[in-house]
Design a protein that fits this description.
Elements (H helix, E strand, L loop, with lengths): L7 H4 L3 E7 L4 E8 L1 H7 L6 H18 L8 E8 L4 E9 L2 E8 L1 H5 L7 H5 L2 E8 L6 E7 L5 H13 L3 E10 L2 E11 L3 E3 L2 E3 L6 H11 L3 H5 L5 H9 L6 E7 L1 E2 L5 H8 L4 H7 L5 E6 L4 E6 L1
Parallel strand pairs: 5-13
Antiparallel strand pairs: 1-2, 1-12, 2-9, 3-4, 3-6, 4-5, 6-7, 8-9, 10-11, 14-15
Length: 301
């Protein structure tokens, strides 16, 4: 790489930046995916519409995952339907590692025409957000209808219904010959108090939140994916009139597919011997496909 080549520090590629506005009692996250996004999308030959869908899903998963408090915690976002062309969309985040894939009916997708919306892709679907807490082994899940013009809007509904936290999300996607870029902004109004997982004294009409949400809502997708604008510059553009804005680099992102022969061997060992025998070929090999990275693993039973 020459000294003139773009770097993560100048483009903000594959980085998560956090910020807080103390006087407004708000916090936010901003992310821009580049090489990591390209690596994930290249695992399957997705149509452009599904590339955009998965890019948005990876972006919002990164934003939400950065809200996790402890190492080893995992957030999984899953959009699922029983009657849509897209049967499953799943992404997860753990310690700066992201991964995701889409399952869909190719023939059904071809019949949808150009630029199908969320309802056309999923039908009557639902969106599930799952938090796996490493320290305790506990799992928390919230489920909302998969409604709205985008995943971002559906997730705003999730935060309102399941977390009771006013939340604004904006995303931008650019799939050009020069490279694939996806970026997003998440801003939240924090409650006056908290008891366990229950927020207290949430006010949807709080003047501080009204101000911050108006400012944040002015961010465009074009600005988010503009690699000439560092992430801190975008935050400064929105909130330069505030008395104090604190920023911190939260994570550098990577593709986090955790597949391996050892992993799949452990999974298969949990099946009864008769079931494993039916899975194996004439040489006693069970071939396992990883949906995340599109690799095949031959496991000797």
């Amino acid at each position: 790489m020459s000294k003139d080549d773009p770097t993560p520090e100048t483009t903000g590629f594959d980085q998560l930046l956090g910020f807080t506005i103390p006087e407004r009692n708000c916090r936010g996250r901003i992310v821009r995916l580049g090489p990591v996004l390209s690596k994930i999308l290249a695992a399957h030959d997705y149509p452009v519409v599904l590339k955009i869908l998965l890019a948005e899903a990876l972006t919002v998963t990164s934003l939400m995952g950065s809200l996790l408090k402890n190492s080893g915690d995992q957030l999984t976002m899953q959009a699922q339907t029983g009657d849509g062309v897209v049967s499953l969309l799943v992404c997860d985040y753990r310690d700066g590692e992201i991964r995701g894939y889409v399952q869909y009916d190719e023939d059904g997708f071809d019949a949808l025409g150009a630029e199908p919306g969320l309802e056309a892709l999923f039908g009557k679907g639902h969106l599930a957000i799952t938090f796996d807490i490493a320290a305790t082994g506990q799992r928390y899940q919230g489920i909302v209808p998969l409604e709205g013009e985008s995943l971002s809007r559906a997730l705003e509904s999730y935060f309102m219904q399941s977390e009771q936290v006013p939340t604004l999300i904006r995303t931008g996607i650019s799939l050009s010959p020069d490279g694939e870029v996806a970026a997003g902004l998440l801003v939240q109004h924090l409650a006056d108090g908290e008891d366990g997982r229950e927020r207290l004294h949430v006010r949807l009409d709080h003047p501080d939140w009204e101000h911050v949400s108006i400012m944040s809502g002015s961010m465009t997708g074009e600005e988010l994916v503009d690699v000439s604008l560092p992430l801190e510059t975008l935050v400064w553009r929105l909130f330069h009139e505030e008395t104090e804005v604190r920023t911190a680099l939260l994570a550098s992102l990577s593709r986090g597919c955790r597949c391996s022969e050892l992993h799949f061997a452990k999974v298969l060992a949990k099946f009864p011997k008769e079931d494993r025998r039916e899975m194996a070929d004439e040489n006693g090999i069970i071939r396992v496909d990883c949906a995340f990275c599109s690799k095949e693993f031959p496991i000797q039973d």
